[in-house]
Request: fold
Amino acid sequence: MNKPKKKLNGNSFLLMITILLFIIMYAAGMIIFADKGFAKPQMFLNLFISNAGLLVIAMGQTIVMITAGIDISVGSVTALVCMVVANQMENHGASAFTAVAFALAIGLAYGLIQGFLVSYMEIQPFIVTLAGMFFGRGMTSIISTDMIAIKNEMFLAWANYKIYLPIGTYSKRGKFIPAYIYPTVIIAVLIFIVIALIMKYTKFGRSVYAIGGNEQSALMMGLNVKRTKLKAYLLDGVLAGMGGFLFCLNSCSGFVEQAKGIEMDAISSAVIGGTLLSGGVGTPVGTLFGVLIKGSISSLITTQGTLSSWWVRITLSALLCFFIVLQSIFASLKKKK
Amino acid sequence: MEKDVLLTMRDISKTFPGVKALQHVDFTLRRGEIHALMGENGAGKSTLIKVLTGVYEFDSGVVRMAGNDTPIVNHSPQDAQKAGISTVYQEVNLCPNLSVAENLFIGREPRKVGMIDWKTMNRKSAELLAELDIDVAATMKLEEVSLANQQMIAIARAVDMECQVLILDEPTSSLDDDEVAKLFKLMNRLKDKGVGIIFVTHFLEQVYAVCDRITVLRNGELVGEYQVKDLPRVMLVAKMMGKDFDDLADIKSAHEGKGLGEKIPVIEAEGISHKGTIKPFNITINKGEVIGLSGLLGSGRSELVRAIYGADKAESGTLKVNGKEAKINSPIDAMKLGMAYLPEDRKKDGILADLSVRENIIIAMQAKRGMFKPMSRKEMEEAADKYIEMLQIKTASRETPIKSLSGGNQQKVIIGRWLLTNPEYLILDEPTRGIDIGTKTEIQKLVLDLADQGMAVTFISSEVEEMLRTCSRMAILRDGKKVGEIEGAEMTQEGVMNAIAGAGGDEKHEE
Amino acid sequence: MQLQELEVTRNMKNKFDIRKITGMRLFMPIVCLLAVLLINVITTPGFFKVTLNNGVLYGYVVDVINRASELVILAVGMTLVTAASGGQDISVGATMAVAGAVCCQILSGGQVTTNTFENPLILAMLAAIVVAGICGAFNGFLVAKLNIQPMVATLILYTAGRGIAQLITKGQITYVRVDAYKVFGGYFGKCPIPTPIFIAILFVIIVYIVLKKTALGLYIESVGINGTASRLVGLNSTMIKFLTYVICGVLAGVAGLVASSRIYSADANNIGLNLEMDAILAVALGGNVLGGGKFSLMGSVIGAYTIQALTTTLYAMNVSADQLPVYKAIVVIIIVTLQSPVFKKFMANQKAKRAASKAVAEGGNQS
Reply:
């Protein structure tokens, strides 16, 4: 059998840039902010802790973006989930388990409706999810315009359960301080693994890639394009619901302005991680690195201390812009070839 | 049904609004043969294939496949595939972002405990590729594979899905000679296995190199079915283009002798080329002359005028307009030098569907004048009315959206659009395609009138007799090259067809 | 379809047909506006009552027209962008905030609050509009030159824009407590009519005149309908798309100044909040197809007033500002569903079926 010539094509090149960027960024942080504890393992784990929800949401975003779609409603779904979860537990006496069910149901409903409008009614995904975004934010404020803090014991127990790892640092007195994570990280990482497997090893996953690569061809090859797209949005919705719940475990509250701009974080993470806006290309692994880059930017800026938190979003937007332009250049190079 | 007959289509008719695309066409495919389906633009080749593969539903007729007692009707390409009919199109219908193996197996991947078994899939793909002698690795991404190999992979996919009938719809248009040879080897292999292949192409040489039988269509009607060895090239060209003059008067005679005085060149092109489509090309076009570009579809006739007009950027060569060297980077440059271009695909490149007849007529003139010199409402209306009357455009009013006009009238609007810019050089690419006979004659007459008034015209058509009627000189193209130029007495059906048929034809062609 | 036929027959009968055609095109937007007004009259009895208090006009209608000003200006820009590129600019709200921030920051000379102009007003306003134009040019570059989907391209500024505005104002709300600045969002001299109304009308007229006195309107429609055909008739599609984004940015800047003048401050978080959705809705309500092509400026303007009337109605029905998007989102989805080719095809099929069954019935009668 012939050995495939391993050419470095544009897409894997983009992913390489991303991974390198992350390593350089993190290493630079470790050197510059060594005195502020940036080099500790806990600092690295914090990336996962504070971005567990985003990771799950970004997984869904990656899937719809591979079909050449987009979902900008995820931020408001997160806010709606947090609000409903908080409201149900605090004002209606629901248990934490019921709250999970509510979160998933909201995600499912969003996925179903948006998916139907995009795949069967053939409406631009952007318009559909833009409406979804405003709808969710508005519904959140219909439930309550005030912040609801969650005091449900079981919920807080989940949220604050520390899982210690056998790694860590030694304090000045030589005492071992183990690094820890929260259950949200485990759930997020599990979901990441499951999605990675789905995308690689199931007919659905491969059909998603095929549709993004060339919808017409996918149809000609006998794939059910509409149903696959619906499924993609459905999965995306459920993941947004789940991600919203993880987000809620992190913030333990529900309020209208919550998770504002998380859709942008999710889209940037996916794009920075090598997902093409034109569809067909992208991997959960790449998106994971995109999320880690986003996380590193925020922790660098927080650690630095004097910069406004707005810099996180501006840096991320600039990075997104940079990667979009790179994609565009690679695309035109490919065309010329 | 005969024993070796695989597929029969009998008395197939298909009508689109205003067009009879197929009229009582018969087609028969036998086991283990390569059967060429030939015809010029609008002959009905692609309609016939789309009817067979379920893209369109036919109005009447019967399709039978060997092994089925009842006639089959396909409602979608998937249906056709299930019935054992697979198609490989000119545009490869595969996913460039997936691996070769995936493209071969998507939708029917081998599984192990519910998950895709990549190992087996890659192994099976490698076997299939080896068996068909396709030299690519199964794990490569499709977009890294050459176009020819993509074409082969598409065929491999079709073959592996156990097709009995393989339709190849212009698979060779973008392949070079070596790649074509490889493709033919594969086709012959499949033929030996008993697959029936329908081969649609416009390259005559390829038909004679690989096919056993030819079915020729013209204007939606069956011309006939022939053994390749019994049908010389010139005969084939004649059958495709139609030899018999229609009832139209010989309108050219009325114009004979006029406008053929001193030759003043308007366009002098030297060494114009475009990557992959036209090889360096010289042509001179004089004032008051209608020059025809003749050749089969894909010979480079459209690409040449597009390069001159700046629709595609020419790769090399110089262009002189009225004796002065011109730099043309985009259509507007060409327009400012007095050129006008009626594109081949009216729907895609010509009309602005939602705009009114008036706006469609004035748009080019307006673009030429620039954004800050808008035409007044009155000017626009006068211009529109003038051309509606002059070209006898049938429209409810000048404000009617052009999309609600018939094809012929849409074409007249586009012609009006260009006449309004008062061009010195007018390019007409297939101006009469898909248009009723009356309008056709009108357009031909108009072309001659314009030439009489001193306009230089380039006329492209798939119909030889139309060209003979309108052109004063013809350049013959084959495979992106100019193979001859004929004038005056040489301009006969025989002469043109021999030139188009080229090497292997019975007579020499002029250089 | 029937409308078209009607138009045609009218054209043939009547020479003064132009106004009637626009009349037909504006039919739906006007009906929507009337419907909303009707609801208003029912829910709020004194809706059309206008009184003169302290030398200025008061009343619901005045309020609707006044409050709609920014939206009208935005809707004009959004219409052009939609027509030329078949997509929407969702960064207009953020651009407004940036323009407001630039203007106030220059006027205050970098202080948090000021009672006098530190720099000339004209300079500050020009700078704000130039910056807004640059925002538009950035979007235009991404869309027209790099061929990125309009909404993805403008998403960048949608998110980053407010951050940039925050940076400009150093994270604070900059106040300009000077009467001359309050004019643009308040009243001019002794004129009883709020200034924003005039500004909105002025810019609608300017754009209208630009479209009429140049061929830009026709160019935009051509490019939106068929890019390749437009190129072949000599139009520069890239340039025209780019230009619409710049115009949209400039108009967003103007709207931002009005909004900032109303509250005589630059509130980066709230200026133009959720207005992008309203602007898109205005365009859709104005009978424009969100996929691009032919457009009606007046339709969008009427659409904008309709939305403001609707907003006022919802306020009157005790719906809070936060909740408005829910209803607007539903309206948008309904409109785009009605516009979608799938729905139209479905309706056409239904019609064909009915016609066919009717024909069969008639055939039966004849025999």
The first helix of chain C runs from residue 2 to 13. Chain C touches chain A through 46 residues (CB under 8 Å).
